[in-house]
Design a protein that fits this description.
The chain is an alpha/beta fold. It has 2 domains: 47 residues, no CATH class; 243 residues, TIM Barrel, CATH 3.20.20.220. Helices cover 50% and strands 14% of the residues. It has 12 helices and 8 strands. Helix 2 packs across helix 11. The longest helix is centred in the first third of the chain and has 20 residues. The chain is globular, with a radius of gyration of 19 Å. The two termini are 30 Å apart. It binds dihydroflavine-adenine dinucleotide (FDA). The site of dihydroflavine-adenine dinucleotide (FDA) has 23 residues, from strand 4, strand 7 and helix 11.
Length: 307
């Protein structure tokens, strides 16, 4: 109760921390402002045995010109991945490519990215956003795949009840899903029991969806830092595939988060992909990460208060 009160207070206060201080701390979570900085970070991760997925920071776009700019930036990322022989793909937010302004144009942008990615054997992941985007993103994925863009995949959120229905048509040997707990603040009615106040309450649902992927040969990216859940996923995969790391599964974690856990998984032979955000829009992303990590946010607030 006290901890939850503290977390809420920190989350409110963090929005008032001076930007330079947030920027300093955010270096851990964000590769930098430019593609060049993202390349350097990914090269270092690749050298340590991790793959990466690169995200250009920015969410809902104000206009189609901004969506075009984001699409161009991602084309640059695909070129850089190829040019520097990085082991990395891209993660895109459809709303940043105009989903809520003009769904057709958004589809055109993602199809163009998928075409460019396919030339170099690469892949485009769509992040899942808040509930106003859920159905539109599922429809988008299905249209892309029906139109020959098999190198596209989507994220699904285990905190939503509807994921039980949503996942079924997306399962299959040539499909590639990311499962995460879900990050947006949604109405309780849409969430699985207990999800609002207890992140562990999501775990059994998360595991169920991972097992559906394993049982249908769907490639599954398990995006979580929850060690207990990760061990349950490993046990479920082992029950199906023996002792070796299954080829249809990878773990994914955010840059700078739970690094010892990520290193241990790599050392045990599991593939781990790191989500590497970069871009000018670092402030909003940093605030979100800090709200999730009250301890770090607490240090930051203390530093801000003490000048
Ligand atoms: P949980 O919240 O239970 O945390 C487990 C442990 O990890 C806790 O001990 C916690 O302290 C620690 N931890 C978690 N986040 C931390 C942080 N930022 N800093 C420090 N410690 C942290 N969401 C979404 O809605 N759509 C999407 O497309 C994606 N995509 C995505 C990709 C990848 C690669 C990851 C890792 C995550 C996402 N997410 C996402 C976010 C996801 O839904 C979720 O909000 C966060 O991963 C945190 O939840 P965990 O599963 O880690 O568990």
């Amino acid at each position: 109760m006290l901890a939850s009160f503290f977390n809420t207070a920190v989350a409110r206060a963090i929005a008032h921390v001076p930007r330079p201080l947030v920027q300093k701390i955010s270096r851990r979570y964000i590769a930098g402002a430019s593609i060049a900085e993202a390349v350097v970070r990914v090269q270092a991760l690749n050298a340590q045995g991790f793959t990466a997925t690169i995200d250009v920071l920015g969410e809902v776009t104000r206009d189609l010109a901004q969506a075009q700019q984001t699409a161009d930036e991602y084309q640059g990322v695909l070129d850089a991945i190829h040019h520097h022989s990085l082991r990395a793909n891209i993660s895109v937010k459809p709303s940043a490519l105009g989903l809520l302004l003009n769904a057709q144009q958004c589809e055109t942008h993602i199809a163009a990215l998928a075409t460019a990615a396919r030339r170099h054997g690469n892949f485009v992941r769509m992040d899942m956003e808040d509930l106003q985007c859920t159905q539109a993103e599922i429809d988008l994925l299905q249209r892309l795949r029906a139109n020959g863009h098999g190198n596209t995949g989507l994220a699904l959120q285990a905190y939503l009840k509807r994921t039980y229905r949503d996942i079924e048509p997306l399962l299959g040997r040539h499909n590639n899903l990311r499962l995460c707990k879900g990050i947006y603040v949604e109405d309780k009615a849409h969430l699985v029991e207990g999800a609002r106040h207890d992140r562990h309450a999501i775990n059994s649902h998360f595991l169920h969806h991972v097992e559906r992927c394993l049982d249908t040969g769907t490639f599954v990216a398990v995006a979580t830092h929850d060690e207990a859940l990760i061990e349950q996923v490993i046990a479920a995969a082992r029950r199906r595939g023996g002792e070796t790391a299954p080829s249809g599964l990878e773990f994914q974690m955010l840059l700078g988060v739970c690094e010892p856990l990520r290193d241990r998984l790599r050392d045990r032979g599991y593939p781990v992909r790191i989500y590497v955000p970069y871009g000018q829009d670092w402030h909003g992303y940093s605030i979100r990460r800090l709200k999730e990590n009250p301890q770090l946010a607490g240090y930051l607030l203390k530093a801000a208060l003490m000048g």
